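Submission checklist for the structure archive. All mandatory fields must be present; incomplete records are returned to the submitter.

[x] Identifier: C2H2-type domain-containing protein
[x] Organism: Biomphalaria glabrata
[x] Residue count: 307
[x] Sequence attached
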Amino acid sequence: MASNQDKPRNSPNKDVHAGNLEDEEQNSSNVNRTLQLVSAEKPFSTSSISKNHELMHCFRKTFKCDLCQKQMFYKCNLKVHLALHCGIKLFECHICHKGFSSAASLKNHEMIHSKKKPFQCQICQKEFTKSSTLKQHEIVHSDKKQFQCQICHKEFAYSSNLKHHEIVHSGKMPFNCKICHKGFTHACFLKQHEMIHSNKKTFQCQICRKKFFMSSKLKRHEITHSDKKPFKCEICQKKFSQFSYLKQHEVLHLDKKPFQCYICHKEFNRSSTLKIHEMIHTSSSTFKDHEFNHSFRGQAQMGIQKK
């Protein structure tokens, strides 16, 4: 008897009970080689492949899931399907040992370890491991943004992005840094922040030698050294090297000022401008000019006074 080590790495690693399924062969009426309904002319190299193809033309599917009533041609497919209901991960990655419910999901995952990103956006040249992820990304470059925040009216291409954004308005910061105790709205922001404490900037620009914590930040930076400006304003035709720069610019063409000071209610079209303004209301932002023995609210104001 073959041991578990003899199994191929993409084979199921657990045995799933298929309920009261009978182990008998498919009904002869379903596998009848003299099917009058089948007239496929596609050639086959072996009789087994031919038999499997004939089953696809049958109207009856022999194996049925007792939970959702879904029907399937093969018993092996039913076993994989039942694993979805049971939460069993039949397929395991041989590198990180993460489990998956299907062989297709495992193959998609394995591309992460290979670092191959064969699918590239034709607009911003960003690369992806899956074509489905590329399609989702391409919506960012389109005008299809049907999900709008009811508070600041910012629009998003995906409902998931809107939900993440809404946490900002709630004031909740459930993810805290264990070192400096700074709070964050999302786990991904916390992970990015934690890299600051490690002081490990392993990604370096080959042109200006500037270092970054993440490869994605380095890629965005490298565009600034090139003549590529793939993001264009549809109103004034001005081009930008970064998508975020374009978004900031587009607000200037609108009358919308979604960022409001909670103290004096003054409105701004950029969050960065609002943050600078809020320093006026805080005593911690007072800067002392020792030359004139005078205090100013904000460094910018001090510079204007000196002029």
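[x] Structure attached
Curator remark: The longest strand covers residues 286-289. The CA atoms of residues 69 and 226 lie 57 Å apart.
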